[in-house]
Amino acid sequence: MASLLHPTPTVTTILKHRTSTICFFCPLKPTNVSFLTNTNRVNTNTTKCNAFFDNNVTSGLLEVGGDHIPSFLRSGLLQFQELSDMQRWEFLLFGGLIWIYLTARPGVLIGAIDAYLFAPLQLGFDNLSGRRNLKTGDFLVGDKIGEGSFGVVYSGVLISKNVVDVEEDKRGRSKATRLEPKSKDKVILKKVKIGIQGAEEFGEFEEWFNYRLSRAAPETCADFLGSFVADKTNSQFTKGGKWLVWKFEGDRTLADYMKERNFPSNLESVMFGRVLQGVDSSRRNALIIKQIMRQIITSLKKIHDTGIVHRDIKPANLVVTKQGQIKLIDFGAATDLRIGKNYVPDRTLLDPDYCPPELYVLPEETPSPPPAPIAAFFSPILWQLNSPDLFDTYSAGIVLLQMAIPTLRSPAALKNFNLEIKTCGYDLKKWSESGRGWDLATKLISERGPVRRGRLSAASALRHPYFLLGGDQAAAVLSKLSLSRKIIVEGILYLKEGTFFLPYRFIFFTRQQTQTLARALGGYRA
Ligand SMILES: Nc1ncnc2c1ncn2[C@@H]1O[C@H](COP(=O)(O)OP(=O)(O)OP(=O)(O)O)[C@@H](O)[C@H]1O
Question: What SUPFAM superfamilies does this protein map onto (predicted)?
Answer without folding.
Answer: Protein kinase-like (PK-like) (SSF56112)
